[in-house]
């Protein structure tokens, strides 16, 4: 008999159908329903292993592309540093030659005054009218308080489920 490949959704649907049939039979597990459950278990076991293998492959792909992206970022950053170095050389040469413009065959560079940049020499000397006071929530302290059953307005702990892949113990 040729095995049908089933999706996880189809397997879950079959479990619901068999469960419903068992309930309708007053909790009696007929040989036919027991056989269906065994087939579902076998299908589910194969599906779980397939998902696990696919997740493992994806992990390898992720690692590969993360490494590739890191290398590409290094190359881009290298090009940015080179660009800035070249721009600095041109600017310094123009300043040294006391020229505000130089031209090539196709392009020209011109030194122009830019908007002044703000430089803070001493933060403590800045008057209060130029300061913004901000506050930050102490997440660690808040979480600890909530874990000790304290009620804190505006916050609560929320439980979630995470999926962990484990090797099956051989029987």
Provide an overview of this structure.
- It is a single chain.
- By secondary structure, this protein is mainly α.
- The chain has a domain at 8-111.
- 54% of the residues lie in helices and 4% in strands.
- The protein has a two-stranded antiparallel sheet.
- Helix 1 runs antiparallel to helix 2.
Per-chain topology:
Layout: H1 8-24, H2 31-96, E1 101-103, E2 108-110, H3 139-147
Helix pairs in contact: 1-2
Structural class of the helices, strands and pairings?
Answer: mainly alpha
Distance between the termini: 27 Å
What is the number of strand segments? 2
Give the strand order, joined by hyphens, for the main sheet: 1-2
Work out the radius of gyration. 34 Å
Major sheet details: 2 strands, antiparallel
Q: Work out the strand percent.
A: under 5%
Instruction: Give the number of helices.
Output: 3
Choose one word for the global shape: elongated
What is the succession of H and E elements?
A: HHEEH
Q: Percent range for helical residues?
A: 40-55%
What would the average pLDDT be, to the nearest integer?
92
List segments where confidence is low: pLDDT < 50 over at least 5 consecutive residues.
none
């Amino acid at each position: 008999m040729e095995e049908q490949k089933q999706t996880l959704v189809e397997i879950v649907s079959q479990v619901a159908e068999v469960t419903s049939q068992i309930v309708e039979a007053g909790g009696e597990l007929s040989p036919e329903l027991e056989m269906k459950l065994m087939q579902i278990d076998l299908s589910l076991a194969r599906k779980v292993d397939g998902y696990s293998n696919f997740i493992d492959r994806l992990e390898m792909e992720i690692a590969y592309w993360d490494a590739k992206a890191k290398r590409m970022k290094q190359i881009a950053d290298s090009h940015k540093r080179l660009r800035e170095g070249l721009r600095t050389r041109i600017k310094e040469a123009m300043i040294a030659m006391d020229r505000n413009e130089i031209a090539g065959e196709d392009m020209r560079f011109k030194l122009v005054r830019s908007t002044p940049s703000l430089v803070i020499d001493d933060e403590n000397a800045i008057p209060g009218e130029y300061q913004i006071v901000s506050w930050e929530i102490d997440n660690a302290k808040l979480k600890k308080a909530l874990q000790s059953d304290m009620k804190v307005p505006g916050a609560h702990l929320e439980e979630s489920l995470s999926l962990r892949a484990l090797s099956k113990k051989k029987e």
